[in-house]
Amino acid sequence: MPIQDLDAAFQELSDNSPPGQQPVLDWSEDNYIGRPTRRGRRPPVFHHEMWNVHDRVVQHLHRTNNNAEAAHRRIQAELQMDHPTLWQFIDGLKKVQKSRDLGLFHEQLVAGHARPRKLRRYRLCDERIQRIAQTYANYGIMDYLRGLAHNFEMN
After folding, report:
1. How far is residue 51 from each of residues 38, 46, 61, 90, 97, measured CA to CA in Å?
2. pTM of the full structure
C-alpha cells in the first residue's frame, strides 16, 4: 500500500473487520499507523518508511532482508530460549560465528558463488505480489489487501 493511502486503507480495514479483531487493529494503529489526534495522527512506534515495502516491491527489490532473518533464526536455534542472559547471548553468538567461520557457505560466497535460489513456490508468490502491487490503482482497498493476503502463510 503506498504510504499516502495508509490512513484511508486502515480506516476501511477497520470498518470491515469483525469486532474480535479490534485488539489487533489497536496494536497495529499504535505501532504502525499512529493514533488519531485532533491535528492528524501521532507518530507511530515504527515510522511508515521503515516498514512499508510497496515501493520496494514495485521496483523489483526484496521485501525483507532474508539474511538478517536467517541469522536471527540461527541464533534462536543455538540459544534454545526466549530470554537469555547477556552472557548466554554472547556465548551463543560466539558459537554461531564459529560455525559460520568453519563452514564452506561463507567461503563460497567470498569466492563469488551465487546464493542458493529461492524455492519455486516463493518465487511464484513474489511474482504474484509484485503484479498486485504494480496494478494497485486497479483495485479497491479491500480487494487489494485481500489479494495480498492470499499470498501469505501464517504459521
Report:
1. 25, 7, 14, 28, 28
2. 0.68
Beta strand residue intervals within 22-74, DSSP E: 36-37, 40-41
Question: Residues 96, 103: contact at Cβ < 8 Å?
Answer: no
Q: What is the DSSP string of 65-81?
A: -HHHHHHHHHHHHHH-S
CA distance 73 to 71: 5
Q: CB of 31 within 8 A of CB of 23?
A: no
The residues, any chain, with a CB within 8 Å of residue 35's CB and separated by 6 or more, are 29, 41, 42
Residue 152 φ/ψ, nearest 5 degrees = -120, 140
Q: Which residues of the chain have pLDDT under 50?
A: none
Residues in the chain: 155
Joined grid coordinates for residue 116? 542458493
